[in-house]
Structures
1.
Amino acid sequence: MQLKKAVAACGVAFLLSACGGVQNLDANSLTSAGTNLFKAATLSDSDIAALSNDSCKSSDAESKIAPANSAYSKRLTKVMKGFGDMTLNGQKVNYKVYVTKDVNAWAMGNGCVRVYSGLMDMMNDDELRGVIGHEMGHVALGHSKKAMQTAYAVSAARSAAGAASPGVAALTSSQLGDITEKFINAQFSQTQESAADDYSFDLMKQKGMSQKGLVTAFQKLAKLDGGQSSMMSSHPSSTSRAQHIEDRIAKGS
């Protein structure tokens, strides 16, 4: 019976080039990993929200969060007021500032929005709204859901690789940290980035905010080299993305 379970889970091990040694794996753990891989591809919006809750808490625990009375937090509150009563996938947006020199911002499917002080230091308020609108666009357009599914699937596959060791859980704290890191550093496709840009443009137009901020934000990002965030290394280039928004402004569309 145990051997049958192991063979049935061989599709999971194949992802890790491990089918040849499947007899050395704990079958129950391997089968559990297979279940997790299947679940990753079928995560519902509520599943994404729950996983995002855990991931956001994990990230917060590992980061230095600006106090509510700090200049960074007060400024972000002012910036976010421009979006009004914003929700993401039916979840109320909650936002915090991470005190770090890194230039980044991201949003998750539970409404979690995190902005890095390094980004705030180089952007004015309109530019910040443009970038934050872009990150929220990834959530609203389903890109973040796919990124979370991928991060979850990779973590599940790794649990199969480590199934020879006792105590491997479906989602350990280590795996949660791994999922969070992979999500934050996720690279979106050219189509996804362009769609999120347009989402931000349309959102700012709808809310009566300056779309020009999105242009100058990309122009500033274009001057930075070697960035590790999705904003910094995405395609198309920041220069062409700025031009696209300028073209939309000129056309009034």
2.
Amino acid sequence: MTAEDTLQRATFALNTRRPQDAERLAAEVLKTNRRHAGALHVLGYALVMQGRFADAIALLEPIVRGQHDAEFETQLAVALRGAGRHQDALPRLQRAVKRKPPYPKAFLELGVLQIALRQYDDAIVTLKRGAEIAPLMLDLSLQLGVVSLMARDFAGAKVAFAHVLGIAPDSPDALYGMAKSHQELGEQQAAIGLFRRYLASRPQHWAAWLSLGHCLLEIGDRGAGYECFRTAARGDPAQAGNALASLVKAPRGKFWLRPSVARQFLRGAKD
């Protein structure tokens, strides 16, 4: 078996979430060629996937010092972030996104790190650039939508999620993000339809049931709205408190003087 055949098997092992097998196969290739770039990439990914961040850093740091490769630099940054060294990972990724040709995953990882560091405006710029370079890499647009919601740029979030839905119409993450964007903008009817589509595939997302309930209350459909709150409370008893608090705070919600009556309401008993 040739080195390339072994490397293909190693890559397949990575893609099927078998990092130990990928590590073993990459090591076989590296026995005969210690500088084989493809095998080193696979080994780096395998170590990170196993949470062996210190080993990944030890492998990747000498490689990055010796060459200007955006993928290796991105891998090293991911390992550094996994080890909790966010401030060391940041300049690595800032350099990686400047490499030519552009490496889209560097933009994604930098954007995700900037979100973790609450640098929302910087993350929006990074992820927009990445999405322009690689429009079919949907994680870039998904993360752009997420950070736009965090930054309360709801119109921008809609654009990002719409791009994903134009390519993957049933993407649960994009459906939920688009629904939240419409809800925040007061576009309740659009939000209701999207929440329902999302819940068809994710029926145990209780926060989504609460959001749908709020939207239904806003358009005056109290019966359906109250039932959404009940669904969340029945599905997860731990959500009962959240459901009640959310319902009381809703502009068209309900208020009870006695907690026992509130609990009866969530169980479906008549007022």
3.
Amino acid sequence: MPAWISHAQANSHAHQLPVDEVFFQNDAVSLCMLVNRRTRTVRVIDFRAGPSTAKRAFVITFAQREGLEKIYTLVERDEVSTWLKLGFAKEGSIPSFYKRSDAFLLGCPACRRGPPVEREEVPSQSETRIVAAKPATGQAPLTASQERMERTIAAAKKWVKDVPVRSLSPAKVVPAADAQVRKAVAAALRSGRAITAFEPFGRDVERRFFLITVRGGFELYASTESQTCFGNVYLELLQGPRTDAERVATGSALAALGETLLSEGVVSCFALAPSDDVALATAFIQNGFRRTGLLLEHLVVGDTRKDAILWSRKLANPSDE
């Protein structure tokens, strides 16, 4: 008989929307499902390696029953083939996630039925392609999602040429109080501008909150989720810029936060941003982030489900390398 345990992930910050942890175990499958009700996504953590039809059937059935729309998992390289066999598609990578090795994100829509379907792998490394160019003979054409991402990155790079990093104003980073963050998250959700509500991405992690200010009255709330043993940080910005002035200020804020993380010995960081947000892409590119993936229909901004560019940056090498 399968054993079930389900509970909301414990967190000391009262404002944070919970992520349900649902555990499932029987003779063939041992899984933890991290369910984000706001975005209707679920991250699968697999405690028993290897492809299994029972594993895939449970994950899909569970997601459909719970009204979820996107399933994803994060694994080491040697487990990628397992999830490809289960019908998932590789959507991105996080360099140095495990200090000396990369992590890979694979995704699957929850509504899929029947046998695994091959999906074109999302390009995760090259940023040099020209959107207007036709694919070379033998190459599959870009999907609409890929074209949107490429246009965003091309437009952001063009803007960066006119606003070099050295021209950015200095920003100040301070810890944010619970009450401040709770109020800011609620306001961003009401306005439809929230990219995140700072929900947990993983298990057994440390979550911190920051207020970043730039001269002229600009404020930006940010959060990091870290696993000390790996030296990586998941970086979240509450909302993206609306004006050119905010675009520049967001670049300054991201630079200051990066310096803070580097001083604390963080090896690598990664972030997600809507694939159609040129202004936010500008801030990441200005600060040395590179696109390492495209997570399909992964974010919910306002009432709209959006693809997410996976932005990654290696801040430093492990000290003993």
4.
Amino acid sequence: MEHHPTPVTGGCLCGRVRYRAEVFLHNGYICHCTICQRSTGQPAEITVLIKAGTLTYTGDTPKYYQSSPDGKRGFCAECGSRIVWQALRAEDDWLTNVTVGSLDHPEDARVTRHICADTQLSWYDPCADLPKLVADQADLLVATLRAEVQPDGA
């Protein structure tokens, strides 16, 4: 499995919010948490992590909504497209991620796991062969992601 960042561009439906970043395209995940379900209006959200410090907006910046004590969700104020989940603490910036659908080339992304599978809707089971982590396994998830995107332990 590839664990290196790839330069990408992306943006919202109307084109006002545009970004450049280095993302871990082959380490995407499907999040089934109820916050992702509500914020997208979908049964899950698919995202890829951004290499810390590489996200730059080249158009409008998103409007943000703090959805948890750990992060805020960025979306276009004009068209409402979800773009980014951004960590609130600087030391957690490596967890910041963009939605696969906002990438200019979403077909390049690869999904490697499901997270928060304990709240997965029974009728929605894409990529059923991938590993599934439940919310109680958050420490394992963070450790796994950290090993993939920060192999030197930084």
